[in-house]
Amino acid sequence: MKFLYLLIFVCPLFLSCKHKTENKSQDPEPTYNDLESGLLPAVIVGDSILQNHTISEAMETYNVPGVSLALFKDGDIVWTSQYGTIAKDSAQPITSTTKFQAASISKAITALGVLKLVETYNLDLDTDINTYLKSWKAESEFTESKKVTIRQLLNHTSGATVQGFHGYSNVGITPSLLDIVNGKGNSAKVEISTVPGTQFSYSGGGYAILQMLVQDVTGNDFESYFQEVVFSPLKMTHSTFNQFPKDNIALGHDDSGKMHPEGHLIFPELSAAGLWTTPTDLAKFSIAIANSYKGKPNSFISQDLATQMLTVTKVWGLGVGVRGEGDTAFFFHAGGNPGSYKSILINHYNKNTGIAVMTNAKQGNTLNDDILRSFSALFENSVFEPTYITPYELSEKETDALVGKYQLEEEDNYFLDVYSTDSNRIVLYDLNDGMKVTFVPVSKTEFIDVDNGGKSSFTIDSITNKVVKMNYGEGYVFKKVDE
């Protein structure tokens, strides 16, 4: 279920978790080995004894066949490590050059390439995008007073629709980018649905427009432009927007640990989801942004553009999320697709210190979170820390009030069952696909997901004193219904 997938991921066993490590640092090796052996849980309940676990143990728990990571510090890649195999039943190990699908991290790469385009061709971030587009126009009733701009497309405030893309079979014929934007693929037509610049709405469709921008301005195809202008200069030697890399690629696995029937999907929406790369190359990309931000000699883009890239408008920077202040400030992007691959990139850009992690399974998100908590502990930052909670002991009456069936508002056929356990837990059970999420109460109406720290709450009618609604995750509301 798409709602439960926001917070949990479930998976099976695989045969081995052998790993290869490359230590490029002058620091003692155990310093970085602590990262792989010091994974922390999302939630620590009460006086529970804290038990760290290893990456290999977490891979087995989440049934993630392969993991690759790169750690960088002060602008240098100091440590890389790889674990497992390219597929569950394969003997081929993940190596430092094994490519993964980066999914939405493609948008961050695209953003840097677009900023380089702006710099090279003297484009204006705040001019009507239609000034530069030849093959398609961003027009609707909402663009009469305000026009769509490059800046808005980069920071998801353009009003462009289509949040994400579904992928296509790698053995069939795929539609052209123009057909996709016009709704002739397996996704809706990309439209401008709000006044540009007025609100944040994450949009893969907006990045498809940027893909057309690159091609219309340069007269070159998107893949070739990035190979020549981004990957080669940054020495990202194992990165490509070619949807059919020739060798050494990790294959995707679903949440049960089963390999995708075709190994992977393809994404002609290259700018939004089509990148194949490695954590090492993502680290190089990330370091280049921070170096540009600091105005170092021979930086990839100007300090001014890099500063704009890391300036938040509404919610997002230009192609990346940005959080924190001073030494704790960091930019980031995550990626995940139906294939299924999950990745994360984070950089404390004032220190140019961060981590890139890539996995080849749907539950890789949960593993990535565990690794980020270990990274945060190792470098004593607050990017990702466990949630410490004091459980609330529900009375029998309070428990009975919560238990029952809940319907997603505005959806007639989407239901969750809520039931209790003997250990003071509440379980959300998806009646559509059998997925479950377990929550610990912190009050009689507020609950924390024991697996990832996600929050859920219940609304009690002040007159009847009965539970009437459940607020789940980020904005999903379920109303309690009669059995």
From TrEMBL:
InterPro entries named in the record: AmpC-like, Beta-lactam-related, Beta-lactam/transpept-like
Positions of the Beta-lactamase-related domain: 53-367
SUPFAM superfamilies in the cross-refs: beta-lactamase/transpeptidase-like
The protein, known as: Putative non-ribosomal peptide synthetase
